[in-house]
Amino acid sequence: MRRAIAFGRDRASLAPYRDKLVHQRDGSVLRDIPALTRSLEDTFWRMQSECERGATPVPDLSNLDIYYEIGAELNAEPIEFIDARAYRALYLDRLAKWNEHSAIAPDRRFWPGDATAEAAPRFAAA
Predict the structure, then answer these.
(1) H-type helices in 1-126, by residue range?
(2) What span, in angstroms and rounded, lies between the C-alpha atoms of 21 and 47?
(3) Residue 36 to residue 84: CA distance in whole angstroms
(4) Whole-angstrom Cα distance, residue 123 to residue 119?
(5) pTM over cut 0.85
(6) Number of other residues whose CB lies within 10 A of the CB of residue 114
(7) Separation CA 93–CA 10 (nearest Å)
């Protein structure tokens, strides 16, 4: 914090850091546009090849609307300072309540068809 305040008071002291960033910028991987282009082209060729072989992956979109709705509701709630494990437990609880009201079809992601003890570890590991 003291350094930030000192830099704010003496802008000239930032010059060596700016110079270093300018010199390193052009060699950065983030600015290697030809390599990025090659990587994208390789990805597109691989996708085309997979498609021609019939190996195109098909995503499992079942229950996506439910997952989105629960996530949006949780996002709108004033929940602060909750860790990932507690959030997943809360999310699984909301799924179980939804399932009590209207059955959720099992899927391959994390809703096995019920909210029993076997479901929680699968969800927590996601």
Answers:
(1) 2-9, 15-25, 33-53, 64-76, 84-101, 119-124
(2) 37
(3) 33
(4) 6
(5) no
(6) 13
(7) 53
Question: Can you give the residue ranges of every domain in the chain?
Answer: 2-53, 64-124
> With contact defined as beta carbons under 8 Å apart, do 111 and 104 qualify?
yes
Query: Smallest Cα–Cα separation from 66: which of 30, 36, 31, 103?
Result: 103
> The tokens of 45 are what?
């060729």
Express each pLDDT in 54-100 by its tens digit.
Answer: 988 888 888 999 999 999 999 898 887 778 899 889 999 999 999 99
How many Cα atoms occupy the beta-carbon half-sphere of 90 within 13 Å?
A: 14
Q: How far apart are CA 95 and CA 61, in angstroms?
A: 16
How far from each other are the two terminal CA atoms of the chain, in whole angstroms? 37
Nearest partner of 97 among 119, 72, 74, 115, judged by Cα: 115
67: number of Cβ within 10 Å: 20
- Radius of gyration from C-alpha coordinates of the chain: 24
Q: How far is Cα 73 from Cα 46, in angstroms, rounded to an integer?
A: 38
